[in-house]
Design goal:
heterodimer; A: 789 residues; alpha+beta; Aldehyde Oxidoreductase, domain 4; Aldehyde Oxidoreductase, domain 3; 3 domains; seven-stranded mixed sheet; five-stranded mixed sheet; 21 helices; 28% helix; B: 200 residues; Ubiquitin-like (UB roll); DNA polymerase, domain 1; 2 domains; 6 helices; 29% helix; 14% strand; binds FE2/S2 (inorganic) cluster
Chain lengths: 789, 200
């Protein structure tokens, strides 16, 4: 057993990444410039559904500086199709998804033709010279209409707009009772329909890709979250041997799931570079990004909750319609399925049924967006818990308390079949209530109600859990996901005692370089500044499963920890040899091997690193290296949880919502770096609040994206948000040697229902029991006038 | 093509540009000033913010995607790459962004820092609300802005304490050269900054 002093882990280290980011020395993909590099521009469909009757790129090819121009038809045989790695059912309908449309376009923004030219401006100019004729086809937008008999079809050859129906039933699975009986005999049944509006991840760095075919490998720089998965799939799709493909994700400017994709644009650039034998770059404009990078959410949720009069839940039935968009992206069908395990949330529910139908429409395809399935689930259950509280006349906190899993009941196997590892919902909730000043605000609310104040006060409660640390490979396999869930780490001990860490995770804002350095510093007893973390280039990090689903620390952190232990184990016989003692007599603390009972006599890890470098005097049979690799496959998900409370003032005359106080108490297990954790919570809450109040990707009746620029797709600005209060409770993860869980998605999952519950709570006296998101002033005002929303 | 002369981060550049070329593209593609980035095509995000001298020679924040390169003829421009002082001493706003963890992916950061410098040169002692209003033209998807507001507040206080303004010194070539892997952040001990600690 290695003894380490924990000096770094737990401390709010300032990030090492910052040095380059605050001085403009960053390597974005768009910064890549190569000799002879050409620029690619993409002509996108202006219509939602049409047959392409004619395409002619010859005029464009004549223009000065234009090197190549081609359409989907020109490359139909070689461009391959985009992958879906998650066929959730055996009979899932999975339409072909060509990078460049060949005969038909199925959403506005779908790539139709490309121009490659000497400069970006020349390529963009030449797009105007590409001729395309479209013959309009009926546009499918409404989820319910799309499933009706005789509906117009997005993919005529498939004969249906239904992609799949996926069911989980606790009675059938043996994890609980049958839900029908529970609902039929219930004392209280609450039925609601909630709509998850469509959102756009809107990472700040537009997607960009450079493909260089001039070396011994195809090198692909891409603003992606998933360099390793991209390499594997580019190889599989194009038939290029995997060892001939190198992918580099340099500095990547945010992702939020939006860059968890193998994109048409990446494959188009690959095809162009291969055709021309020259490096090719494509960087999207923001308008292109909003219309073509995958969207998120967009579901209709029908929820039925059965309970006894005392507020005890007896059953839950969930029926979802999930908008796939026109095609299936990398994990599109699986996103709502991740939610299937989370509708039961932190509650003890005896009977549960979940049914989800994926539906095709003539819109941009959807896929993962921060939380992926879990925010939707949490929203629905936390909204309906408030309705239950009203129905049975309990405080919303009390109704939750009566149903949640108690701290002494962990590990707890839920009705959805997952085993929650640890938690203390009471502790987090108590802390949150205290920080908010709950009782006092309730009193103020009562006063405002009594006096008929035009500005009403509402308090929204959201208690959540989530599953993070995607994921045990066997579980993924049982869910028909195409890959495993392990992660890797390698440690290279340099002769001078400095350390290079290679991680299979691929950070794009999460601060892995800092957090990983903190872990290594403690485990190896080296200085924080003596650790360099390398990632995102398959030449150095050839194996990994990248960053999404709050998995990097929860899974990759264990691989890193294990790799550190291996380094120490390798160094020990070498230190013993130098100290002329038995390895069993050595202990390792603070980077030093010391003979037990003789603290003055020691050798550092750096001494051992130098010794293996020289290799002049090593014990017989010892390999001259301290380097170590580790691959870790998690044994379970980890389950962070927390309680978020929002107090909002709602002006009944203007519909304006002002968040007065927002408290987030999260329990994410042990914390490596509280500063980074706080930042993740801030940003996560901001995105969740944005869903509640601001953001909406809207299509008109013809399938045009109305919110196609930052003018109309309204990301909150600094003036739109307020400071929040954060705190933590701590239930260490039992399966993680460092006790950590994950935090990347917590804020987004928790905050949306907290805000909407607050608004609805404020307007209860006006007969309001729901408001459609985003809760714009107009909707809130209408609701307050009794006009519904 | 039009001939323009622009001084960027202390260096004069004379170039022929197309009349339609945006300043941000001139900076990035012709001058290699890739620290300044493009985040949108509707002047909403502020990622491209730089400081440009007005006719009186005062440096003011501009969105370089909304300025034509020809409009920058004869002007001085400071980008994120020229903000640090001699020997790569960080500008108070840069330092505060680091201290306060006011960036995650860092894509908005060059524009956000330049906008904050601009804001503080107008208002050296802003309230939190004034900071939020003042940075309204800059979007960040990662941070929720809370730490950005803290950082700007801290930078203002630091500048006032030091009796200097947060307005940047004209950059020198030496300062820019120091921006190398070993010219980065000053190394620090383990900080003991007060952040929320878990309740027992
Ligand atoms: S690039 Fe968005 S405002 Fe200039
Ligand atoms: S730090 Fe990522 S957009 Fe601001």
């Amino acid at each position: 057993m290695t003894v380490t002093e924990e000096r770094e882990v737990g401390s709010p280290r300032r990030r090492k990444e910052d040095a380059r980011l605050i001085t403009g020395r960053t390597m974005w993909t768009e910064n890549v410039v190569l000799p002879g590099m050409l620029h690619l521009a993409i002509l996108r469909s202006p219509v939602a559904h049409a047959r392409i009757t004619h395409v002619d790129t010859s005029a464009a090819r004549e223009l000065s500086g234009v090197v190549d121009a081609f359409s989907g038809r020109d490359v139909a045989d070689i461009q391959g199709g985009l992958p879906c790695a998650w066929p959730v059912t055996e009979d899932m309908v999975h339409p072909d998804h060509p990078p460049l449309a060949v005969d038909e376009v199925r959403h506005v923004g779908e790539p139709v033709a490309v121009v490659v030219a000497r400069s970006r401006a020349a390529a963009l100019d030449a797009l105007a010279a590409v001729e395309v004729d479209y013959e309009a086809l009926p546009v499918v937008l409404d989820l319910e209409a799309a499933l009706a008999d005789g509906a117009d079809l997005v993919h005529a050859d498939k004969g249906t707009n239904r992609s799949y129906t996926w069911v989980f039933d606790s009675g059938e699975a043996g994890t609980g009772e049958a839900v029908d009986a529970a609902l039929d005999g219930a004392e209280v049944v609450i039925k609601r329909r909630y709509r998850q509006q469509r959102l756009i991840p809107a990472f700040m760095e537009p997607r960009s890709v450079v493909v260089d075919p001039t070396g011994d490998q195809y090198t692909i720089w891409s603003a992606t979250q998933i360099p390793h998965i991209l390499r594997f799939l580019v190889s599989a799709i194009t038939g290029t041997p995997e060892h001939k493909v190198r992918v580099v994700a340099p500095d990547v400017g945010g992702g939020f799931g939006g860059k968890l994709q193998v994109t048409p644009e990446e494959l188009i650039a690959f095809v162009a570079a291969k055709r021309l034998g020259k490096p090719v770059k494509y960087t999207e404009s923001r308008s292109d990004s909003l219309v073509s990078a995958h969207h998120g959410r967009d579901m209709i949720q029908d929820i039925e909750l059965a309970a006894r009069r005392d507020g005890t839940i007896t059953g839950l039935r969930v029926k979802l319609l999930a908008n796939m968009g026109a095609y299936l992206g990398l994990v599109t069908p699986g996103v709502p399925i991740l939610g299937a395990f989370m509708y039961n949330a932190i509650y003890k529910i005896p009977a549960y049924r979940f049914e989800c139908t994926g539906v095709f429409t003539n819109t941009t395809f959807t896929d993962a967006y921060r939380g992926a399935g879990r925010p939707e689930a949490t929203y629905a259950i936390e909204r309906i818990m408030d309705e239950l509280a009203v129905e049975v006349g309990l405080d919303p906190v009390e109704v939750r308390r009566r149903n949640w899993i108690n701290a002494d009941e962990f590990p707890y196997t839920t009705v959805a079949g997952l085993t929650y590892d640890s938690g203390d919902y009471e502790a987090a909730t108590t802390r949150a209530l205290e920080l908010l000043g709950y009782d006092e605000l309730r009193r103020e609310q009562a006063q405002r109600r009594d006096s008929g104040d035009t500005v009403q006060l509402g308090i929204g409660v959201s208690t959540y859990t989530e599953m993070c640390g995607l994921a045990p490979s066997r579980v993924l396999g049982s869910l028909r996901y195409g890959a495993g869930g392990w992660e890797t780490a390698s440690i290279r001990m340099l002769p001078t005692g400095k350390v290079e860490v290679v991680t299979g995770t691929s950070p794009h804002g999460q601060g892995h370089e800092t957090a990983w350095s903190q872990i290594v510093a403690d485990q190896l007893g080296v200085a924080f500044d003596d650790v360099e973390v390398l990632h995102g280039d398959t030449r150095t990090s050839y194996k990994g499963l990248d960053t999404y689903g709050s998995r990097s620390l929860a899974v990759g952190g264990i691989a890193l920890y294990n790799a550190c232990q291996k380094v120490v184990d390798k160094a020990k016989p070498i230190a013993a040899h130098m100290l002329e003692c038995d390895p069993a007599d050595l202990e390792f603390t603070g980077g030093q091997f010391r003979v037990r009972g003789n603290p003055d006599n020691g050798k550092s890890l750096a001494d051992c690193a130098l010794a293996v470098f020289a290799a002049h005097d090593l014990p017989d049979g010892v390999e001259p290296t301290l380097d170590a690799d580790a691959v870790y496959d998690p044994v379970n998900f980890s389950f962070p949880h927390g309680t978020h409370l929002c107090a909002a003032e709602v002006d009944t005359q203007t519909g304006r919502v002002a968040i007065r106080k927002y408290v987030a108490v999260d329990d994410i297990g042990r914390v490596i770096n509280p500063l980074i954790v706080e930042g993740q919570v801030h940003g996560g809450v901001a995105q969740g609040v944005a869903q509640a109040l601001f953001e909406d990707a809207v299509y008109d009746a013809d399938g045009n994206l109305l919110s196609g620029t930052f003018v109309d797709y309204t990301l909150p600005s600094p003036a739109d948000l307020v400071d929040i209060v954060t705190d933590r409770t701590e239930s260490p993860a039992p399966d993680h040697p460092l006790g950590t869980k994950g935090v990347g998605e917590a804020g987004t999952i928790a905050s949306t229902p907290a805000v909407v519950n607050a608004i609805v709570d404020a307007l209860r006296p006006y007969g309001v029991n729901d408001i459609q998101m985003p809760c714009t002033p107009e909707r809130v005002w209408r609701a307050a006038q009794g006009g519904g929303a | 093509m039009t001939r323009i002369s622009v001084t960027v981060d202390g260096v004069r550049y004379d170039d022929d540009v197309e009349p339609r070329t945006l300043l941000v593209h001139h900076l990035r593609e012709q001058l290699g000033k890739v620290g300044t980035v493009v985040g949108c095509d509707t002047s909403n995000c502020g990622a491209c913010t730089v400081l440009m001298s007005d006719p009186d020679g005062r440096l003011v924040g501009v969105k370089s995607c909304s300025v034509l390169a020809v409009q920058a003829d004869g002007r001085e421009i400071t980008t994120i790459e020229g903000l640090a002082g001699p020997g790569n001493t960080l500008h108070p706003v840069q330092r505060a962004f680091h201290e306060r963890h006011a960036l995650q992916c860092g894509f908005c950061t060059p524009g956000m820092i330049m906008a904050a410098v601009d804001l503080l040169s107008e208002n050296p002692d802003p309230t939190d609300d004034e900071i939020r209003e003042g940075l309204e033209g800059n979007l960040c998807r990662c941070t929720g802005y809370q730490n950005i507001v803290r950082a700007v507040r801290d930078a203002a206080a630091a500048a006032r304490e030091a009796g200097t303004s947060a307005e940047p010194e004209p950059p020198t070539v030496e300062a820019v050269d120091a921006a190398t892997p070993d010219g980065g952040l000053p190394s620090e001990g383990t900080p003991d900054e007060a952040v929320p600690q878990p309740v027992p």
